[in-house]
Amino acid sequence: xxxxxxxxxxxxxxxxxxxxxxxxxxxxxxxxxxxxxxxxxxxxxxxxxxxxxxxxxxxxxxxxxxxxxxxxxxxxxxxxxxxxxxxxxxxxxxxxxxxxxxxxxxxxxxxxxxxxxxxxxxxxxxxxxxxxxxxxxxxxxxxxxxxxxxxxxxxxxxxxxxxxxxxxxxxxxxxxxxxxxxxxxxxxxxxxxxxxxxxxxxxxxxxxxxxxxxxxxxxxxxxxxxxxxxxxxxxxxxxxxxxxxxxxxxxxxxxxxxxxxxxxxxxxxxxxxxxxxxxxxxxxxxxxxxxxxxxxxxxxxxxxxxxxxxxxxxxxxxxxxxxxxxxxxxxxxxxxxxxxxxxxxxxx
Length: 348
What we know:
Number of domains: 1
Number of helices: 14
CATH superfamily: ABC transporter involved in vitamin B12 uptake, BtuC
Low-confidence stretches: none
Helix content: over 70%
Shape: globular
Number of strands: 2
Radius of gyration: 21 Å
CATH class: Mainly Alpha
CATH architecture: Orthogonal Bundle
Strand order of the largest sheet: 1-2
Order of helices and strands: EEHHHHHHHHHHHHHH
Strand content: under 5%
């Protein structure tokens, strides 16, 4: 039986794999990727030493002077790639949680996983005494996963339901925020300042050694999320409908939550907690595509938003490079107010 069209146009690709791609989602994804690439080139050009487009491409191809190549490849390219890949990972993570909870506020920022990663990093820095990147990253990863397990167990009652997951997650986030404040207040001033600076979320000074492991994890999990797209779409219809489609509900839900948690924890381990992207990117992508059937436009939107926010953080105050978390937090606050206002109006 042919698939239902729903009045939308599709692009068919026949060959080794028979693909059926929504035309509007494909167009939006291509436009967003083009805009993200243009932003990335601009990000490689700007800085204390401004470069031309020609110098950037010469550095990338290995034909530029040593100093120019060092600036582009060793200093600026890791930052741009981190923003693109981590933005995509955070956005897909937010999309998974929002689909599972069937709520636009059900993102890792709101339901505590980002706070859990921050708590893990603080424990590594302030209690264990680790100052190395690996130690802090491991703490953030363990904190995020431990928080996910705790929230899942507390929310589980004959299955895991979206609204209960949000309520338990918000409560856990509030408790973890209090724990984080206590840890910072009871530590030495210089250590607390370092931990607080990490907690803002920043791509300043990121290098290839820090970027590569987390980037590989995020890329692999983005493919895993794409494979799990069918079970996720079935779960959006409800447990009974998912079972009718042959989906193993709880097993699929655990796998999706694990993927989404690591997609949040891995970037957080490197750059600190960055809000707004996981919350807003999926909903903005849905507004453009009029569909929530694909992760591709969501990932492209996340990459574009985080890179755009990071470039704004470098340029908004002349002579000062702000942490990208400051920009995303400001935008996220405005977005959250808009969502709450819209939901309040729709409830009248």
